[in-house]
User: Which sequence fits this backbone?
């Protein structure tokens, strides 16, 4: 699943975050469906809420307030409790910011949601700002021009990251405004506000994750000692899940649980709602010396830190509200969290399991594409039914937990809408001729997958074949690269992108994103994008390789495999790393023009196809195996 | 001439700057030669100076002071007046920082200068810190550990950029130290301190620079109006020279003059030492509405700015001392200077002249290589005599002013020392077998050149041929790239670098740097380096393409041409740009293994060679023309 490749903080939906969802899957989540239904019941509610909020703002002396669907942990998916922008506007898409002033109200969202947002706002007093169109001001710029010097902008400090708070504060300062926190304009207005989930957590067994939590804590502590850090504050939910080998069901797709942790040289404190912890889980954690605290005790804990303590935390992943609890006499060390760095490099057990998880995921995919091409009974597949079928096939795999995001199945022109997701209204049959772009993934206890393939339905056009082959060349360029120690993601982004450029093409998303292990499908800190990345690539990092090409009104093509960074050759110029492709699913031979491939590229394709065949065939029924043999037959000039 | 590819502020010599010299040419400058001579006369002086400085520090309550050879304009080459590090340490290399504390004293320099610095410091109490070696602390880190919390670090605010001041201030804050300015520990100690040069400026005629200063000022003002900027402060000397079409001789190689400028909607004020301005020049400037002020009046001018004024300036190019003069009620807009952005895009006249300047520069180079290979009389060339010969040949070209940096001629293993420069001690004859790396450039009134070629003396080894061909492939990859509007330098850096990676090689410098027009050979804001660059590439930008490969003890290879960004194709994916290679000098056929080249690469080489032959032959004597015909004959498989 691709990520939009724009700087953090420049996207409306992002509100300064990097890992917010960039796919339409969220439209299918529980919260969004509910929000959409409730919005359809009454447009009037929105204006009532806006007016109520304005009154609360007036009482608090605030002239503008920013609403976004963000939680205190800056998560990609958030519990309904934190969907304040959806509540105030009735618009439930995965990207959007609302600003309410006394005079005006605006919603900013990107091109994926222009239509849906316009529909949601129809009949309300909220103006839609189509982010990304020429001449459309950003929300910060608009707010600055709507307010007068001396006036007050406010945000909810509990869901505003320290990094964003600082940017907004600087922007306010530049425009003679003041940034406030501490007002809650929803207050009593949001009568039926859902509670923060109290879903129980469960343990991720060591046979899957490969390392005990004591071992992880020990490594973290040794790193802290090396940097003279006394206390590490863990705020990102996937960092928390990884460090303690716990998982949860608080949100869709991401198997995380809401909590905080504090690690010192001799303590490991886990701050969780006590209802989340069963006796069994509690005993297991206690046995490893982990002390449990209530979720809401974290601020008090920080306030009690002694002067001179050195505290490491991540300004991008910590709310300003919590940051304020840190005493001034505590010295803070800011940056990418050490836990995120450790989590990014998959251990030997994880790498081994990922390779075998790719087999069951590949088997489901090959069964799916066989079903799609060869038919099975009378059903004519549509985008939605195809996605359901794939989910059903994947669910037969051992340790399957769910999808890692809502599958993107786009047929023909729909494939060119990078973040398309079918719904009941847009759904179309997959026929007669055209390309089907299918981006999907699964959560298994033994690994997270994410793959994009393009199937040719009927006879592909010459243009489709050329485009697919160009994307394939870009994919191969990255798959075969070797790079020196110290290389960062943006340097590898160009390796794939320049191939597209030479063919006059380009794509608006990044070339790859980090992936978790039975964790978030978008995981930092590394990525292959054009924006600067302070983190060098290291062995064990698990990342997608997914260049694409989108022709509006015609078709969309993306070829996505997951790769592991591995040690490579060592030369006079130092140590090199390489990328090991581990995803297993055939490339479509009908879409490959071998005359456009170099000898090396052709060899890579044939090697890849034969690996897919050899690894998957033992697990396929006879007809599917025979069909796959044809699909993966060696291509010749 | 290549630039080291490390982040700003991480190099000792840089003291936070980006455009400091990364070549040893400075060893040959007037100031450095003098410094070296004076150092050789007495080692005792150094410790006397250190002790004198310590006393001054003690009186001022300062516990550490940083010395660097930096001027108030953050120039690459600085007048002797500003060489305080050379004065205190006796070490005159182009990169180095000295820190003096009450207990200790250290000099930080990089690998180019380990030897020379060790020699300079022998017998002194200053410790040499070899920057870049494992375990060697940076000067900021060392200073923090040498001082105790509560103590005071001081810098000269007049030569410390705002950007560096902020970084040092933050580092001091993190370590419980205080950063002071306002003390001058040299005071009366530096008895014979040279004055700031009062060399006269001269006008750069419009027939060369293509645009009048009124026209440039008008464009700047229109840009200012669009951004609601009321005042632009010009601090970089090359910005100043470009904007007013003036040049000077204050320093070696860079034809700039020391001054400041302030541009408002209706005023253009030029702050210069009045002795620099002849009557003729003064009248010409006055005729274009430019008002002259004394150099030392700039601070007073800034102090007088009205509250609410919006002032644009560059924190990387402005001293903290001058910045302090800006009243708090003035709003500052920070970033890359608009003048630098305008200057970077060469106009049509400049582009046309550069193409013809390349002919005379190429003629000098071909005459030089012919002389080197075929001999002429009895003289056996050495590294130094070859560089002198090339300078002499170039000086015959029309409008020749001087070299754009001290030529780097490195034979055999010397070529692998990236910033090698021959001196009387290191100089070797260019014989019998080996590669000669020659990096050189010239200043003409009608353009600045910078080119690197490698000549094969005797019979090249198979390894030399392979290495040269790999560098050539990397060079061609960049020379032939087309890239979409909005692409930045780091994205293009990877285009060349990945070719090297695939062959297990790499280089420690950037792939290219911006170049001025009869201005600095290192000119921002764009560059092809691995570090993030906020500036997108635009048509008219003039940049080097210079991948390299260095085998310690064996040989060094770099192939450098200058390129102009030009408009390219327009596709469904938007507008693309391409690079026009304009440097004219043959590539060495004896070093090219055609079996390693693709058909496209071979075609590029043959096209380039025939362009060189066609453009230069009319200007060459018969024997040289015949020789060049052989050199540039089409290569076949």
Assistant:
């Amino acid at each position: 699943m691709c990520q939009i490749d724009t700087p953090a903080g420049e996207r409306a939906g992002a509100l300064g975050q990097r890992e917010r969802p960039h796919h339409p899957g969220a439209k299918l989540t529980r919260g969004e469906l509910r929000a959409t239904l409730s919005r359809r019941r009454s447009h009037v509610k929105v204006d009532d809420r806006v007016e109520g909020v304005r009154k609360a703002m007036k009482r608090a002396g605030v002239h503008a307030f920013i609403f976004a669907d963000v939680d205190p942990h800056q998560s990609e998916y958030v519990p309904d409790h934190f969907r304040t922008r959806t509540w105030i506007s009735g618009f439930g898409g995965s990207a959007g910011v609302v600003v309410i002033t006394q005079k005006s109200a605006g919603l900013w969202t990107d091109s994926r949601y222009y239509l849906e947002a316009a529909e949601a706002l129809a009949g309300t007093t909220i103006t839609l700002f189509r982010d990304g169109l020429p001449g459309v001001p950003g929300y910060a710029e608009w707010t600055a021009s709507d307010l007068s010097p001396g006036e007050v902008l406010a945000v909810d400090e509990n869901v505003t990251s320290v990094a964003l708070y600082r940017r907004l504060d600087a922007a306010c300062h530049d425009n003679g405004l003041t940034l406030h926190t501490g007002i809650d304009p929803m207050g009593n207005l949001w009568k039926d506000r859902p509670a923060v989930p109290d879903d129980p957590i469960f343990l991720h067994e060591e046979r899957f994750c490969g390392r005990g939590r004591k071992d992880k804590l020990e490594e973290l502590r040794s790193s802290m000692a090396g940097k003279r850090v006394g206390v590490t504050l863990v705020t990102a939910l996937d960092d928390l899940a990884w460090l303690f080998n716990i998982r949860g069901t608080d949100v869709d797709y991401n198997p995380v649980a809401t909590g905080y942790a504090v690690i010192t040289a001799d303590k490991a404190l886990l701050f969780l709602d006590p209802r989340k912890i069963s006796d069994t889980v509690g005993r297991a954690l206690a046995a490893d010396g982990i002390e449990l605290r209530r979720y809401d005790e974290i601020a008090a804990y920080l306030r009690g830190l002694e002067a001179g303590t050195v505290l490491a935390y991540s300004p991008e992943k910590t709310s300003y509200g919590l940051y304020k609890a840190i005493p001034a006499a505590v010295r803070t060390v800011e940056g990418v969290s050490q836990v995120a760095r450790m989590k990014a490099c998959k251990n030997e057990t994880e790498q081994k399991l990922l390779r075998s998880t790719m087999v069951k995921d590949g088997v489901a995919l090959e069964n799916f594409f066989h079903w799609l091409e060869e038919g099975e009974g009378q059903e004519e597949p549509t985008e939605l039914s195809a996605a359901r079928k794939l989910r059903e096939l994947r669910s037969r795999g051992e340790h399957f937990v769910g999808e890692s995001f809502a599958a993107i199945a786009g047929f023909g022109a729909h494939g060119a809408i990078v973040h398309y997701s079918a719904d009941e209204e847009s759904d179309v049959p997959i026929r007669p001729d055209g390309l089907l772009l299918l981006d999907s993934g699964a959560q298994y206890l033994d690994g997270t997958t994410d793959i994009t393939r393009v199937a040719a339905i009927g006879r592909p056009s010459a243009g489709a074949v050329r485009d697919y082959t160009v994307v394939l060349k870009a994919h191969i360029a990255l798959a075969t690269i070797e790079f020196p120690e110290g290389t960062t993601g943006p340097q590898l982004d160009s390796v794939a992108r320049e191939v597209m450029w030479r063919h006059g093409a380009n794509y608006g998303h990044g070339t790859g994103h980090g992936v978790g292990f039975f964790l978030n499908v978008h995981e930092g800190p590394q990525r292959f994008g054009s924006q600067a990345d302070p983190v060098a690539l290291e062995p064990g990092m698990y990342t997608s390789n997914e260049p694409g090409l989108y022709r509006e009104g015609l078709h969309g093509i993306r070829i996505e495999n997951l790769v592991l960074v591995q040690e490579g050759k060592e030369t006079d110029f130092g140590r090199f790393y390489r990328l090991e492709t581990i995803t297993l699913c055939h490339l479509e031979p009908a879409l490959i023009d071998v005359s456009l491939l170099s000898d090396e590229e052709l060899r890579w394709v044939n090697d890849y196809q034969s690996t897919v065949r050899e690894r998957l065939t033992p697990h396929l029924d006879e007809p599917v195996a025979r069909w796959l043999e044809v699909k993966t037959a060696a291509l010749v000039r």
